[in-house]
Amino acid sequence: MGTRYVRNGEVSIAFEDLGGAGGRPLLLVMGLGVSRFWWQPGMVAELVERGFHVVAYDQRDAGESTRFDAHVAGHPLVTLLRGRRVAYTAEDMADDAVAVLDALGWSSAYLFGHSMGGALVQRIALRHPDRVRGVAVSGAVPSDAGPLQVLRYVRLGFVARMSRLRFPEGPEGDLAAGLALARAVASPAYPFDEDAARGVVDRERAAGVRSGVRDATAQGRQTGAPWSGARLAALRVPVVVLHGDADQVVRPSAARATAAAVRGARLVIFPGVGHDLPRELWPRVADEVRALAERVEGRQAERS
Q1: Taking the chain (304 residues) in consecutive chunks of 10 residues, what is each chunk's mean pLDDT?
Q2: What integer pLDDT is reported at residue 216 of this predicted model?
Q3: pTM
Q4: Cα torsion through 119, 125, 127, 129, rounded to 10
Q5: How far apart are CA 259 and CA 267, in angstroms?
Q6: Between the CA of residue 113 and those of 82, 124, 191, 208, what are the distances in Å?
């Protein structure tokens, strides 16, 4: 159906219907600085096959959504440590997702977030509990982790190595940067899928999207957005926490902390999986999201 837009105040949020109309509503939220095009079509197809109506959106400062280029920010970790407001709050980012739900006419939905998107879906559920049915978190830190806690969860050596990489301007540089990131986060137990990585860059290029991989200032604004909402222990919707035991970016201890903080959360640690969702794992991940929905619906049936 192509890109649609909804406004949250002065901010324009881009979103796209990826199929499965009439199924359970599912909103996908991707990670730090990158666009919705990082969700692989094959992963989406698995979710649609399991009965979900799938929509993905671009967070502010990413993809086709509003960019805050006039607001200068530094390296993401530096901005995080300084703890100062940059251009918006994490509450604003949570409200962007609800604006998408409103535009779709969805009174509530399931949320699936990867990497920073995984932290954001926790926050959306905490800020708007009546709009969220269940939450799937992948490769993320706990939503209420402070800057020093985040530093314990994030592998700083990986961040330092990636920040030193340099690529030429233009399409070829975007491709090189996208492939470099995809290789760096690829699961060591599975073959690297270069075609899938190239597909991300191709989809961004076709949409005229500026690559977020190299936009450290946008990443800095996102990580610097402060959260002053409820603690994770207050989350009452069902949660499944997914994480790879070979995650190069976020330590598995982050997933364990998230699952421990949320009553009844299901924790799944995937052997040999990095900070990506490899093709071979798509059916298993989709099964976990479906099981989450069935759990929610089972609870509702018991109450009625």
Answers
A1: 93 98 98 96 98 98 92 56 70 98 98 98 98 98 92 90 82 89 96 95 91 85 92 96 98 98 97 98 98 92 75
A2: 84
A3: 0.94
A4: -170
A5: 6
A6: 26, 11, 24, 24
> What are the structural domains, with CATH classification, of the chain?
3-303 (3.40.50.1820)
pLDDT for the residue numbered 76: 56
Cβ–Cβ under 8 Å, residues 255 and 242: yes
Amino acid type, 132: V
